[in-house]
Design brief:
The chain is an alpha/beta fold. It folds into two domains: about 210 residues, Glycogen Phosphorylase B (Rossmann fold), CATH 3.40.50.2000; about 170 residues, Rossmann fold, CATH 3.40.50.2000. The strands form two sheets. It has an eight-stranded mixed β-sheet with strand order 3-4-2-1-5-6-7-8, with helices on both faces. Strands 11-10-9-12-13-14 form a six-stranded parallel β-sheet, sandwiched between helices. α8 crosses α13. It is globular.
Length: about 400
Amino acid sequence: MKKTVIYFGNFILPDCNAAAHRVVSVGKILREIGYNTVYLGIGDPDERFDGLRSVENSYGFDMFESAYPAGNIEWVKRLTDVSGIEQLIKKYQGVREIILYNAPYATVCAASKLAKKYNIKLLFDCTELCDVTEGSLAKRIIKKADAYFTKNSMPKKIDGLIVISSFMERFFEKFQKPMVRLTPLVDIGDPIWHGTPIKSAYKKSFCFAGTIDASKDFVNEIVKAFTQITDPDIGLDVVGVAEEDFKNKYPDILPAGGSKNITFFGRLSHAETIAHVLGADYYIFIRPSDLRNNAGFPTKFTEAATSGAPIITTNVSDIGDYIGKSIKGYIVSDTNAETIKKTVLKAAADFDPQEKADRELLAVFDYRSNVLKLADWIGELIISYALTQK
């Protein structure tokens, strides 16, 4: 009988957000070591349906989704609703583990009872620890309470942890649970990495791909830096942000007539985004050093690194373990536009067209490189779980 894992969380299947990319990569590793991974994610906010709905995908996994909650009452109900997981336990034979992806603490408690009922191991995939600074007062209070219990009580309810950074390893090690660190991963065999790169209009091109998230990515400082560059050969391609949206958020950065050194492409598909990254001379993103960014690990870093492009970024999370070693790039010492501009100009001066022509994909973050690590963790889980059942 094949062993089965149920992966549950607020990811939009099959590959509509970074969370989905994360859990699919972990599922590919689990498949390598003999597990069948079944996914239960969340539907598109604009679609309404009842029960669980199957999601078509090209990965060879069974994927399901439940409807996106319509309003606060449905969100509260979702916190403790694990009926979908139970349906899948009954549908698939040999369910050995449930993995919760960044689940609220109330969900962890409900899933813990379910796991005990069916004698199944409960695991937690943790990719974020956040300071709560946004939303209404009531939402901030609820989120702060959930963050507290996730940090301090969640590990006591589960049998093992997947974490995304060494910061998290250090944070959770006191709970003495079997733990494995997996950065965001890619599948270097995926066709998106072997498509035609989208060549920039600039002779020395820098690419940022992401969204406007003022507390996470300082795209405003990056754009401001490029407005101060006068060399027409040096330019920034902004993927994922429309120019109008940027102006609405940051009305005082772009000059009245726009900037010849900056091109906005708006929101694109994941495949189109990767094509831009593959075609860029450099990749750039700037993040502040705070709890959110140091506890996490940027997906955009792993994707840019896979493209082989040198990366310009700040030293958050475990990035310093890679830049200048297995990954080419530049660490920016500050997040302000002036410092970014100086680093961009240095990178442009260092640009070697032949090096770009010889560039190859890097397998540093390919999921296959983590198969043995995850297999060892599963072995540790089995032993630890057996001991707790005595």
